[in-house]
Structures are given as C-alpha cells and as structure tokens.
Amino acid sequence: DAGVIQSPRHEVTEMGQEVTLRCKPISGHNSLFWYRQTMMRGLELLIYFNNNVPIDDSGMPEDRFSAKMPNASFSTLKIQPSEPRDSAVYFCASRSNTQGGNQPQHFGDGTRLSIL
Amino acid sequence: AQSVTQLDSQVPVFEEAPVELRCNYSSSVSVYLFWYVQYPNQGLQLLLKYLSGSTLVKGINGFEAEFNKSQTSFHLRKPSVHISDTAEYFCAVSLSGNTGKLIFGQGTTLQVKP
Known about the structure:
The complex is a heterodimer of chains A (about 120) and B (about 110).
Chain A: E1 5-7, E2 10-13, E3 19-24, E4 31-38, E5 42-50, E6 53-56, E7 65-71, E8 74-79, E9 88-95, E10 106-107, E11 111-115
Parallel strand pairs in A: 2-11
Antiparallel strand pairs in A: 1-3, 3-8, 4-5, 4-9, 5-6, 7-8, 9-10, 9-11
Chain B: E1 3-6, E2 10-14, E3 19-21, E4 23-26, E5 31-38, E6 44-50, E7 56-58, E8 64-68, E9 73-78, E10 87-95, E11 102-104, E12 108-113
Parallel strand pairs in B: 2-12
Antiparallel strand pairs in B: 1-4, 3-9, 5-6, 5-10, 7-8, 8-9, 10-11, 10-12
C-alpha cells in the first residue's frame, strides 16, 4: 500500500519566494497533520484537518503560513514570503479516525526546506 | 494540559547490550501511548502502541514497552540492540477522544556502537 506521499523531497529557494509543500494522505484516512521539525524546537504540530476541515491551527507560526485541504486526497502548506528561519523538515501525517483516538498517525518522508 | 518528557536526549550503548529509553507523561485523563522511530532522512515510523489491556506491549524490531499508570511512564526496552537500531525515538500521547492529536516528547537519540 502507498504511504503518505510528500513532494518535493527537497526544496532550496531564496528568501522572499513563495514555497508550496504538497501531501497526499493514505487513501481512506480522514485526518491530516502538518508538522515542522528543527534541531532547536523538535517536532511541532502546525495544523491538522478532520474530513478536510481545519480543526486546530494554533501551531501555525504566523500569517505567512497557510494550509489547505481541498479534497480528501490532497493538502498543501504554503509559506509566503519565506524567510531563512523557516528552514526545517516539514512532515505530513495521516490517520483514520473511524475507531477513535487509538489509530496511529502515518508519516511521510518529509520535505527538507532550505531558505537562503 | 498533557505533556511528555523523554528523560534522556542521547543514549549511547554497545551492540548486543540491552537498552531502555525513558518516557514520562502527564495527563488528567485517559491517554493512548505510542513510540515512534525516525531513521536518518526518513519520517516517523510506528514502533508500538498502548491502548488498553496488558501493560506490556510488544512492537516491531524486538522492542517492547511497559505502561505504568502509577508512575505515568511508558519506557521502551530492547534486550539486545543492533547497529541498525541507531535512530531517534519519540514517545507520544494521544487523548482517548477522537481528535488523534499527538503530543510528542523531545526525542532520544540511540547511538549503537560496535
């Protein structure tokens, strides 16, 4: 079975540019999570969706960050304008919530973002 | 509020030795507990989970964990580690509701030496 698919795997861009990260969750999963991982701050939850609806975006750093989930099989995380401090690995995860909170999250391999 | 504390940031150990990675949590409600492993340049992979029932949980790659409610701990153990176990390990809790939101610990880097 295909797991969570993220693209691109690596992104290098200059400060001020718009960055779009993409995620395809596992088919049938109805919750999707975006995380950011850095050495300094560890793993941080940015936002999560249930049935394509954003539930909690309290982890989104600032207005430069936005996330959408137009349908059950696709989500984007956008940074505009990007800054060097946004450099990190961004992970997407999905899970099925049909049986309550006991279903684990499944992670993609991440997007390594470098802002110069 | 819920929180997870992994007591060791790095654990060096020799190959074939036993290892324990410690995890403590705080929560006023029932939780589900998870251990994930992250190999270099990869995402997190589920090792094992505790939902209810037996407090000793067995996972993949020979790992096991024991849930101790009185000590609010969920330590991860392996009786004999391999070089390939070198990775970062994350403990996480999820509320027993339906949100699926995970609270992660800071991670423990396991360094297995030959």
